Amino acid sequence: MEYAITLEVKGLTLRGMAHKPVSDGPVKVPVAILFHGFTGSKIDGHFLWVRFSRELAKQGIGCVRFDFSGSGESGGSFSEMTFSGEVHEGKEIVNFVKGMDWADPERMMLVGHSMGGAVAVQVAKEIPDNIHKVCLWAPVGNMNKLAASYFEKHPKLPNGNVDLDGLELGRGFYEDLKGRDLYHDITAYTNPVMIIHGTDDQTVPHEYGQKYYDAYLNNDRGIHLMEDVNHVFSRLSWIEELFGHSIRFLKK
């Protein structure tokens, strides 16, 4: 069963979708919470999150996917979006999902792509006892460098923001990230982690995924490098491999 959900965070409405597996009776199920990447949405390119959610439901795993504020159908402006703001929203989403009547609060799992992967890492670090597993798809580790490049390469607006290919990216996004080490203290989270990264990722080179793997030295951890695969997994065979590996990890 799929149905729309909303959540209010700091006066903004986050809009999402819930995918409840078919079950007999009032059974609580594990839930994967999906975090989209920079300029993404709860649908994402080639409907990646929709397809993954439906595959998870077939396997008896519930799924919740929200647009972060300023993205997709959620309230707010993209120009006001910051990394720290998405981390805060991520924690609020976890608390919301824990209260759903069919969700098992002991089996909350995070799946994040690109910047959404970095958000998932920070959420798990800040509320480690609430997260059962973390699965990272091409997790960004160089977001401060990417943010700086956006402000160097794209047209400046009079208010100090930039025109990012038709989106207004706020200066606050850069200021929030410029001194931040995305790997700092992430080992506060000690539960299982899986990293999946393409070796031909030109946006976030797979070395950043490897660095996350290396940082989680004492976790039950895994890394799966997909040969010659790009940042957005844009072939059917790549998606099949991505989904299969992720689902096996989440079900284990």
TrEMBL record:
One family from Pfam that matches here is: Hydrolase_4
**Gene3D superfamilies linked:** alpha/beta hydrolase
Q: Keywords for this entry? A: Hydrolase
| Serine aminopeptidase S33 domain segment(s) | 51-146
Q: Which stretch is the leader sequence?
A: none
The record, for InterPro entries, names: AB_hydrolase_Est10 (IPR053145), AB_hydrolase_fold (IPR029058), Hydrolase_4 (IPR022742)
What domain of life?
Answer: Bacteria
Keyword Hydrolase assigned to the entry: answer is yes
Q: Name one GO molecular function term.
A: hydrolase activity
Q: Which PANTHER family match?
A: ESTERASE ESTD
Q: What is this protein called?
A: Alpha/beta hydrolase
